[in-house]
Specification:
The chain is an all-alpha fold. Among the domains are: 47 residues; 92 residues, no CATH class; 154 residues, Alpha Horseshoe (Serine Threonine Protein Phosphatase 5, Tetratricopeptide repeat), CATH 1.25.40. The longest helix is centred in the first third of the chain and has 29 residues. The N and C termini lie far apart (95 Å).
Length: 892
């Protein structure tokens, strides 16, 4: 056999392969040389020894994974479960806390799937290891993906043995793995004891388990106690499947008849078939015709879904083509199909086409409330309120009762348009039609009021709530709270708080505490906090953060710190004390300029193991910069590097330190820090840092360094701003380089496409006076006024004082007259209200003119008369708008 192959494989074939092989060798060698040239590394990073640490490698692993955990992770990754179990004995109790999420989830899955699992869990010393809830979720998800319900249920039992926290998602997955009805009931009891809310997903998961285990009684109890809408289609379908699995056919038909039919819910074909079977067994022949219609319309339902999909994709032509093909079958088109087509037209922005198909549905007798609602929603979206109102009236004429959805769509449009009168008229129509306002109705009102800061209508809506007797539940009360906060109706909020339901949550308390904190009402802040504690509402970290912030912004930082001490002493509240809380208190001590308290708070954080993040460190650095305590900066930087996890200095850190050095007169330290920062590749200096250094140069009159910094700034691609320009103009003016200052303004504005503001021009005028050219400063004033730049009071004060220093007192008086828009000067007057000068400047000018001189007395009289007249014009009552204009001005 070998000889045959040798004969057929000739030497010509061998030589034909050689060029191809050498080509690949050449290409590989070229790639290797290119890699070394570009990277400078002979060995790729992934092949280097992980234990070889160099000076150039700043990201060394501060907490290496123990060898035992590495062995377990490697064995689990290879699928060697027994090897992984054998390595468990080599891992210390403390090392389990370092186990990564992926390894923990794989280990849990392996323990649940092995016969050795229970023995290992009971015999091994796990120490304080408690896998995080996410690891359990990942393991349960993998078991569900494998459809291994046995392993899934064992994972739940293991979680109890290891005291693991189960989340809502964990309970959903465990419900799918429950082996019998007793297990499902035990699972529901565990959820209730854990105070995890029964969300829709969790309820549906439990109902699925009830259908599998034929537990209808538990399903009924759960649906009755869950805070979910009874007419939810998914909930109805799940409950019908539960009763069908228990052969309780009457109950299945009852849900369809009493819940789904009044809500106009159409069962899909599989559910319709199940209901047909239930109706047959229950002897409910009266339900058969409608259910047969649903089954016969299976094809039509599929086409309706296709039309809806085309609409979502924006393909109206595809939706119309599908509809036309359906019409070719000469079968009556159902209202559902028409509604899907109208919805597709609305989604594609073709409102007139939507009205066309609505008219066609009316002619075929297939127009229903859903179709009208969809068409009205589209008209409202494009602002055609008149057509929407016409459709509402047409519904009444055709005997179709408008639903709450209809009125809510119109009401929401009226709220957005600030047309409160039409909104209240709609509510009156709604009540006349026998539809009482609900919590949704009031929420729409309150959102409109809050969006337009209309406190009057907030009060009116609250009165309507009382009038209609609607129960103020948590959701509605939260809407009232938000509206009161946004409109500043804190008196109304206080009144409603006293009448609030007992079930208020911590987030609602947090919103109210924040509002009263911004209103500077510390008494009410404390009252709300104590009320929350007395009602045994456990505060969240966000609620506690609102409380601490409210105290700090009102100057009660010491009280905030004492509150932190109280909560730290309580085990159940200790987790609320985190880095954010301490950062807020740090800012409070910065505002009160108490650096010693700052360090005491910092030491307390380190003692309690509260991690300091960049915000906290930057806050302390900023405090040191303001208080002139720059000697503490090096130690704080060292603490940042040694923190666990390390807090890498960012651009804000460096900018704060540079600003502190420059403010304390140590410009060289700031420049040195800039050079150190530029050596690294991670951060680049920004405009704030350059401006701080330029300001330091201006303080020390170091023009050459400032110009070098400007060149460096431009080369680095950092665009200068007006603030940068004002610093440079000041420095050039003091250095007697006035022409260069003018050139600098023109060049930077031209190169970077911005216009010099009045602050830059004020500095330029002061530079003219420094260089003994008052005439140029006054000419610059006229030039910028002609160009549309409006001088402010500081500009005129600078001009007047410059003229006094130059000894031209008469020109200083003219500047004052120009600033107040008086006659008797040759300067160009600005448009708008006069800026004027302050009293101190006016007194100085009058003193230099001579108090008893005619010119001084006349100037003083004219300025006073101008000020009085300007005050009258400012406070003169303006005519109130009337008619529709007045309504529109008030808005919501």
């Amino acid at each position: 056999m070998m000889s045959v192959h040798l004969d057929t494989f000739s030497f010509s074939d061998v030589f034909s392969l050689v060029p191809v092989m050498w080509t690949e060798v050449y290409l590989f060698g070229f790639a290797a040389v290119l890699y070394v040239v570009l990277t400078g590394n002979l060995i790729p990073a992934r092949f280097r020894s992980k234990t070889a640490k160099t000076v150039d490698d700043p990201k060394q692993d501060a907490t290496p994974k123990p060898e035992g955990l590495r062995a377990i992770s490697s064995a689990l990754h290879r699928g060697n479960i027994d090897d992984a179990f054998d390595c468990l004995a080599d891992v210390s109790a403390d090392a389990f806390a370092l186990m990564p999420l992926q390894t923990a989830s794989r280990l849990l899955l392996a323990l649940a799937g092995s016969q050795r699992g229970p023995e290992l869990i009971s015999n091994l010393s796990w120490g304080s290891w408690k896998p995080e809830a996410r690891a359990l979720e990942v393991a349960l998800s993998e078991a569900a993906r494998r459809n291994d319900v046995v392993v899934g249920w064992r994972l739940g039992q293991m979680a109890d043995d290891l005291s693991m926290v189960k989340t809502s998602r964990s309970f959903e997955l465990l419900a799918g793995a429950a082996p019998n009805a007793k297990s499902v009931r035990a699972l529901v009891d565990e959820v209730r004891n854990s105070e995890i809310p029964f969300t829709k997903r969790l309820v549906l998961a439990v109902l699925g388990a009830c259908a599998t285990t034929s537990e209808s009684e538990l399903a009924s109890e759960l649906v009755a106690s869950a805070e979910l809408p009874q007419s939810d289609p998914d909930l109805c379908a799940a409950l019908i499947r539960v009763y069908a699995s228990c052969e309780q056919w009457d109950m299945a038909c009852c849900i369809y008849e009493e819940v789904m039919m009044p809500a106009h819910l159409r069962p899909d074909p599989p559910l319709s078939e199940m209901l047909m079977r239930a109706a047959g067994y229950a002897g409910r022949s009266d339900l058969m015709p409608k259910l047969c219609e649903f089954l016969a319309g299976g094809e039509m339902a599929r086409q309706a879904r296709a039309i809806r999909a085309f609409g979502k994709d924006g393909d109206l032509d595809g939706a119309v083509t599908t509809f036309d093909k359906l019409k070719e079958g000469n079968v009556p088109i159902s209202p559902v199909v028409y509604n899907c087509l109208i919805e597709a037209c609305v989604q594609c922005g073709e409102m007139q086409v939507a009205l066309k198909y609505l008219d066609e549905a009316k002619s075929m007798g297939a127009a229903d409330v859903v179709g009208y609602n969809t068409a009205m929603k589209g008209q409202l979206a494009v602002g055609d309120d008149a057509t929407a109102e016409r459709l509402l009236a047409e519904m009444a004429q055709r005997g179709l009762s408008a639903s709450l959805v209809t009125y809510h769509s119109l009401l929401n449009a009226r709220a957005r348009a600030c047309d409160c009168h039409s909104a209240w008229r709609l509510v009156a129509q709604m009540r006349a039609a026998g539809l009482q306002p609900t919590a949704v109705t009031y929420s729409i009102f309150l959102k409109g009021c809050a969006a337009h800061s209309d406190a009057v209508h907030v009060s009116r809506v609250v009165d309507l709530i009382d009038e209609t007797g609607v129960v103020m539940d948590e959701v509605l009360f939260a809407s009232v709270v938000e509206a009161c906060i946004r409109t500043g109706s804190l008196d109304l909020l206080a009144e409603r708080t006293r009448q609030s339901p007992q079930g208020l949550t911590a987030p609602t308390y947090g919103s109210m505490i924040k509002a009263y904190g911004q209103a500077r009402d510390v008494t009410q802040v404390w009252s709300l906090w104590k009320e929350m504690i007395s009602r045994e509402v456990r505060p969240t970290s966000i609620t506690f953060g609102c409380m601490v912030e409210a105290l700090v912004i009102n100057g009660s930082t010491e009280e905030a710190w004492r509150l932190v001490q109280e909560l730290w002493e309580e085990e159940q509240h200790r987790s609320l004390v985190n880095t954010v809380i301490y950062s807020t208190i740090l800012k409070g001590f910065v505002l009160s300029k108490q650096p010693d308290r700052l360090m005491a708070l910092y030491d307390e954080m380190r003692t309690r193991g509260i991690a300091c993040n960049n915000i906290a460190y930057n806050t302390m650095l900023n405090a040191f910069a303001h208080c002139g305590a720059m000697h503490r900066v090096p130690q704080l930087l060292e603490d940042m590097k040694c923190a666990n996890p390390p807090a890498e200095p960012d651009i804000v850190t460096y900018s704060t330190i540079v600003k502190g050095y420059c403010a304390s007169g140590n410009l060289d330290k700031g420049l040195q820090l800039l050079q150190e920062m530029r050596k690294g590749e991670r951060l680049s200096p920004d405009e704030v840092m350059y401006n701080s250094l330029l300001d330091g140069c201006a303080r020390e009159h170091r023009l050459d360094e400032a110009l070098r910094l400007l060149d460096d700034m431009r080369e680095s691609g950092v665009a200068p701003s007006n603030y940068t320009l004002s610093i440079l103009v000041k420095l050039l003016g003091r250095s007697r380089r006035l022409p260069q200052a003018f050139t600098m303004v023109e060049t930077l504005c031209s190169d970077y496409g911005f216009r010099a503001n009045i602050q830059v021009y004020t500095c330029l005028m002061q530079a003219c006076f420094h260089n003994r050219q008052p005439g140029k400063a006054l000419a610059l004033h006229d030039q910028i006024v002609r160009e549309g730049c409006i001088p402010d009071q500081k500009t005129y004060v600078a001009l007047a004082r410059g003229c006094l220093q130059a000894g031209i007192v008469d020109r200083a008086a003219e500047v004052v007259r120009c600033a107040h828009h008086l006659s008797g000067h040759n300067l160009i007057v600005t448009r708008g209200n006069p800026a004027g000068v302050d009293n101190k400047c006016l007194e100085d000018v009058l003193a230099r003119l001579g108090v008893d001189t005619d010119s001084a007395r006349q100037l003083s009289t004219d300025v006073k008369a101008s000020t009085v007249q300007r005050g009258r014009d400012e406070y003169r009552p303006r005519p109130r708008p009337t008619g529709t204009a007045r309504t529109g001005a008030r808005g919501w």
